[in-house]
Amino acid sequence: MSEVIKQHYIVDGTDFTRAGEASGKIKKTLKDIGFPPQAVRNTAIAVYEAEINLVIHAGGGEIDVEITPEYVKVVLTDHGPGIENVELAMQEGYSTAPDRIRALGFGAGMGLPNIKKYSDEMDIQTELGVGTVMTLKINA
Amino acid sequence: MKVSEIMKVLEAELIYGEEFLDRDVISACGSDMMSDVLAYVKEQAVLLTGLVNPQVVRTAEMMDMKCIVFVRGKKPDESMIELAKENGIPLLRTKREMFTSCGILYENGLRGGGHPYNG
Ligand SMILES: Nc1ncnc2c1ncn2[C@@H]1O[C@H](COP(=O)(O)OP(=O)(O)OP(=O)(O)O)[C@@H](O)[C@H]1O
Ligand SMILES: [Mg+2]
Q1: CA distance A67 to B66
Q2: Of A43, A75, A103, B96, which has the fewest beta carbons less than 10 angstroms from its beta carbon?
Q3: What is the pLDDT of residues B60-70, one digit of tens each?
Q4: Can you tell me the mean pLDDT for B17-30?
Q5: Nearest CA in chain B to A43
Q6: In terms of CATH architecture, what is A5-139?
């Protein structure tokens, strides 16, 4: 496994039931190429939380993946409302999700803290009314 | 504890996964909030939940969980069963409520694991 694998996914912002499909495929790819199991799981959890956020907060978006023998890098891009206060959003329990989302099992305000915990590097670039780009890196 | 034993003590119905009844489970998590489930990795865990939508199965898949138990008689739909098949995750369903289900599994030796306050 020496070459770099690149993948691109489009995440539908209108279909909650399909949220997580991209994360599932990314997980499968990592597993198939023999990426270390713990790094596979950490990546799966972090990307899944981020993919759910794309759907419930941003009306969908795109995911770009780059896998090398040393690391996996994931960039999630959306053209949603942006995040007003990233520091606040990163706090456990902070959520703007409406009851409708909570009834679906999300909106505990744990997603961003979880993403931070499971990734080795996490960066958020966001602008109100323009969108958000989140970059994650998980080492093998 | 094997999946078959969980089935027995919870008087649960097997919805899918005959071939996984022998699978060992060593920890458990009960929640209807998926991000709370995702917060702490537990080894070889069973997920108990009263929530029914495909994200329950996806959460279990991302966490490498070994089994899902739907409490309070909640019934997963076809799309969830399909997803469970794709990922090899057995599905059980019990009429018992969350508290009682967790209590019974605890009594039978399962522990929380993963979370710092679970000892
Ligand atoms: N891509 C995004 N676009 C706009 N706002 C976002 C985005 N991601 C997160 N947020 C904001 O940050 C808050 C915190 O996000 P986080 O993922 O931690 O919690 P949540 O999604 O509300 O609940 P949970 O992840 O526990 O289901 C969200 O409630 C939302 O206000
Ligand atoms: Mg979230």
Answers
A1: 27
A2: A103
A3: 999 999 999 99
A4: 97
A5: B62
A6: 2-Layer Sandwich (3.30)
